[in-house]
Design goal:
With 217 residues, the protein is of the alpha+beta class. Helices cover 17% and strands 45% of the residues. The radius of gyration is 17 Å and the shape is globular.
């Protein structure tokens, strides 16, 4: 179960940074990277329900999970998986906590937004960094809907390709294919942006009696 949590965290970092760093400096027109940044530049907070499906290379569903996500600039996120098992991933931008509620075990490490370690920063809004690390293209565009494909330049990237879709500047779907040909698809519903979210939402104190494992970087 811990392995599932860490895989989910990689995906979560990707989305979190999408909402954390894009800003009004991303005004360069005409490139897919700048169009991607523009989808995110007005988002200060994001709240949504999610359904995550992991499939093998034959399209067979290996795992499904659902829960809720809360993101706030800069680098704060809360991802609670509610079904079929419970775990929480939360960071205030300094400490990253992974709480496996069923196992009563918590992993703690320093939060890192290293573009070499997580595909999150391809959505940082830093067009130069995106173009350096990823090949970005527009998959489809229809009115207020747009989808992007991102191919990492590094051979040791956690994912071989990624795609993200927006409707009226709200993220609706993410699809990530790993190097084992497994596909992680995350659909978002009840998406709300720029509603007030208190910083306390991203603070975590381990419950009494749970095992805490500190991972040094």
């Amino acid at each position: 179960m811990i392995k599932r949590v860490f895989k989910l965290t990689t995906v979560l970092l990707w989305l979190s940074a999408a909402c954390s760093y894009a800003d009004d400096t991303a005004e360069v027109q005409g490139s897919a990277a700048s169009l991607l940044a523009q989808q995110l530049q007005d988002t200060q907070t994001l709240q949504a329900q999610f359904l995550q499906t992991i499939s093998n290379d034959k399209g067979q569903v290996l795992q499904q999970a659902s829960g809720k996500l809360i993101v706030k600039k800069p680098q704060q996120f809360y991802w609670l998986t509610e079904q079929p098992y419970e775990h929480l991933v939360v960071t205030d931008g300094e400490s990253l906590w992974l709480y496996d509620i069923d196992l009563e075990q918590v992993n703690k490490e320093s939060y890192s937004s290293n573009i070499d370690k997580a595909p999150a920063l391809l959505l940082s809004g830093d067009i130069a960094a995106i173009q350096k690390n990823y090949q970005v293209s527009v998959l489809a565009k229809d009115g207020s809907s747009i989808s992007f494909q991102l191919l990492p330049n590094a051979s040791d990237s956690a994912f071989s390709q990624l795609a993200i879709s927006f409707q009226q500047q709200k993220v609706t779907r993410m699809v990530l294919k790993d190097n084992f040909e497994q596909t992680t698809s995350i659909s978002f519903s009840e998406v709300e942006i720029n509603l007030p979210v208190a910083d306390q939402q991203f603070k975590f104190t381990p419950p009494a009696g749970v095992e805490v494992i500190v991972n040094e970087r």
